[in-house]
Amino acid sequence: MDVIYIKEKAGSHLNEIFVVSLEDDRLSIVDVKGDLEKVIQEVIRDKGMSFNDAVAGR
Asked: Which residues pair with 31 in a beta bridge?
């Protein structure tokens, strides 16, 4: 099970992602802060995905 919480300030860029992942007997918690829009754009571009495909989980 994975849960992702995305936070952005009003009128601002995406600035925080908090991820909780439970897999078998392992719990992972990640909190990433900063200007994350450029990071996300780079990952999408690196994977050869369009933004719409990435949002749809394809």
From this structure: 18
Question: Tokens 């994977």 — which residue?
Answer: 47
- pLDDT tens for each residue of 39-57: 778 878 887 766 666 666 6
Q: Is the pTM of this model over 0.85?
A: no
The angle subtended at Cα 14 by Cα 27 and Cα 1, nearest 5°, is: 25
Beta strand 26-33 with 2-8: parallel, antiparallel or unpaired?
Answer: unpaired
Torsion of CA 47, 50, 9, 13, to 10 degrees: 80
Q: HEC string of the chain?
A: CEEEEEEECCCCCEEEEEEEEEECCEEEEEEEECCCHHHHHHHHHHCCCCHHHHHHCC
